[in-house]
Structures are given as structure tokens and as C-alpha cells.
Amino acid sequence: MEIHGGFEMNILIIAPHPDDETLGVGGVIVKNVKKGNKVYCCVLTKAFPPQYSEELIVRKREEAEEARRVLGVEKNYYLELPTLKLDTLPLFDIQQKIMAVISKCHPEVVYLPHHGDINSDHRVAFEAGILAAKFTKESTVRNVLSYEVICSANWAPPFPESAFIPNYFEDISGTLAVKMEALKCYRSEMKLAPHPRSLELIEIEAKRWGSVIGTEAAEAFILIRGRVV
Questions:
Q1: How many structural domains compose the chain?
Q2: pTM
Q3: Is residue 210 within 8 Å of residue 218, measured between CB atoms?
Q4: Among 143, 146, 142, 129, residue whose Cα is nearest residue 221
Q5: Neighbours of 185 (CB within 10 A)
Q6: Which residue range forms the structural domain that includes residue 63?
Q7: pLDDT score at 6
Q8: Closest CA to 110 of 120, 121, 95
Q9: Where are the alpha helices (DSSP H) in 106-170?
Q10: Collapsed DSSP state (helix, strand, coil) of residue 85
Q11: Under a CB-based contact definition with an 8 Å cutoff, are residues 71 and 26 in contact?
Q12: Cα(160)–Cα(229) distance, rounded to whole angstroms?
């Protein structure tokens, strides 16, 4: 099954936080840009004082734009909802904001964070995103997938309802290097090994998924909805 094949298309990544899009879909983003597809990111949250300094807030936005340019993303849509507080907002309001972005970029493929992630922002982003990307007669969306964010998925409790069990894989052997360069832009987010959000462990994770499908590197997804057109 080819999610991105056959014709030029628009792709939308729903990212609860800046860096989630690169962690989960970075290799696929570059792969699609090389094919001539247009990729957009919808970044749901923004850091606010006093929890974060003004200097760090500015730096996080600069890092996100730097990574966007490395990946070749057409545009980042910033919703600027409060980070780590999405579960305090009405789900309907978040859904409507995502739908407004969908109406602007007309995606055929939408990527959401995994529904079982330990981070509450990721779970809310999934719930709002799956509602916003529902299939209707007027909708351009024909495939919805969820992606793995290392740490958030790995640290989730070991319950079946939280498990990330992928059923679709993309070979990113030819784009892993660019993904790693984009991750280096997120200097305020990357950690040192053996933290799972270190460059070394992220590369190992990509190679682990690659071994599942017999390639050097891969990204793993759950295909939630798909339709043939």
C-alpha cells in the first residue's frame, strides 16, 4: 500500500509541540518534499511565562523555523495554545482550530501523535485531530496515521490501550541524515545519551524500525483510517 504515491499531494502534520513533527515524521517529511509533495505543520502549543523565560520562548520559535527550513516544510501554522495545558481547554475549540488549518492546506494525508502517549498534550492533540480530520464528502483527507514520539510513547504505561503497535512503516534510509540535522536545530530540547531523546538513541530507534522491514532505517506509524480514491 502506498500512502503518498500516484500524484502530488498536500500533507499535514499535527504537532502538539515544536520538535514532535521532526521526532515522529522527520524522515517522511523530507521524503515527500523530494517527491514534490507539499508538507505543512500545525504546531498546537506555545510556551508562556512565568514557566518559561521570554528568551527561551523566542528561542523555541527560532528553532522550530530553523528545523522547518532544513526539512523543507512549506509552512508552520502556530496555534499558540498553552503548552502542557491542552487538557484544560474545550476539545471542540481545539478541533475547530485544527479544522481551520485543514481548510487552508487541503491535506490528503494527516499525521497525528499517538493516542496513548504519556504526555497529555499529545493525547488531546490526537482526540481533536481525529475529529478534525474525519472523512466527509467535502474533505480532501483520505489517510490518517499516528506517529511515535520517542519518550512520550516509550514512557507510557505498559497497558494495551497505551501501546504503540505500528502497522505501517516508511523506509527513511535516504532521508535519516536530514532528519538528524533538523533535530540538531532543537538545541533546547535535545538531551544527551542515554536519554531516549538524544540524537544517538533516536537514530538507533530509526534503525530498529528499519530492521523490522529490512531497510537501514524507518519510521513507524499506525494507519488509523485509509481510503482508496
A1: 1
A2: 0.95
A3: yes
A4: 146
A5: 22
A6: 10-223
A7: 63
A8: 95
A9: 120-132
A10: coil
A11: yes
A12: 32
Sign of the CA dihedral 43, 48, 54, 55?
A: negative
Contact (CB, 8 A) for 218 and 212: yes
pLDDT at residue 158, rounded to an integer: 80
**Is 17 in contact with 48 (CB distance < 8 Å)?**
no
Contact (Cβ atoms closer than 8 angstroms) between residue 105 and residue 12: yes
According to the model, what pLDDT value does residue 229 have?
55
List pLDDT tens digits, range 163-198: 999 999 999 999 999 999 999 999 999 999 898 889
CATH number of the domain that 20 lies in? 3.40.50.10320
* In-domain check, residue 2: no
39, 178 Cβ separation under 8 angstroms: no
How far is residue 110's CA from residue 90's CA, in Å, rounded to a whole number?
22
Q: How many CB atoms lie within 10 A of CB 172?
A: 25
pLDDT per residue over 91-125, tens digit each?
A: 999 999 999 999 999 999 999 999 999 999 999 99
d(CA 125, CA 112): 7
pLDDT band for 61, please (50, 70, 90 cuts): very high
- Calpha distance 171→100 (Å, rounded): 31
The C-alpha cell of 132 is what? 478534525
Residue 43: inside a domain: yes
Residue 131 belongs to some domain of the structure: yes
Amino acid (one-letter) located at 41: C
Q: Grid coordinates in use for 105?
A: 492546506
Sheet holding 10-15, edge to edge: 75-82, 38-46, 10-15, 109-113, 143-147, 218-226, 168-171
DSSP symbol at 194: T
Query: Is there a domain that residue 147 lies in?
Result: yes
How many residues does this entry show for the chain? 229
